[in-house]
Amino acid sequence: MNRHNVIEQLQINIKTIYHKAIDADKLISEQQADGLGQFDQIFVSESPFNTQADHFLPYVEEMANDLVALQQCEDDAQFTQQLEPLVSKIELAHKTLASFKQLLG
């Protein structure tokens, strides 16, 4: 798969996560307004994310920023080096959003 196709698939995945994150964040805000859902961050500190937030959208923003940095890579080694953590973040976000939906959906 060439770089263009990889970038395109990452964009599709991040867009899908974005839409799911909007729905999940709405539920989180509703829960917090009811005095529930009192937590400091979605992902534990050992996750691949640098962001620490109690909603999903800041994590989506981090993935989007990582994608922009990936698109600016000049050589294959740098591209691969930056691709791996982004894929890990995308996989974790998909898995967590699916679990969240089952839990509260």
Topology:
Blueprint: H1 3-33, H2 57-71, H3 76-104
Helix pairs in contact: 1-2, 1-3, 2-3
General description of the model:
The protein has 105 residues and is mainly alpha-helical. Helices cover 71% and strands 0% of the residues. It contains 3 helices and no strands. It has helices spanning 3-33, 57-71, 76-104. The longest helix is centred in the N-terminal third of the chain and has 31 residues, at 3-33.
Task: Provide a compact summary of the structure.
The protein is mainly α and 105 residues long.
Low-confidence region ranges: none
Radius of gyration (CA) equals 15 Å
What is the count of DSSP helices, taking H or I runs of 4+ residues?
3
Query: What's the β-strand tally?
Result: 0
Report strand %: under 5%
Order of helices and strands: HHH
Oligomer: single chain
Structural class by sheet pairing and helices: mainly alpha
The shape, in one word, is: elongated
Share of helix among residues?
over 70%
Overall residue-averaged pLDDT value: 92
- What is the rounded distance between the termini? 36 Å
Quick one: biggest sheet?
none
Keywords:
105 residues, mainly alpha, 3 helices, 0% strand, elongated
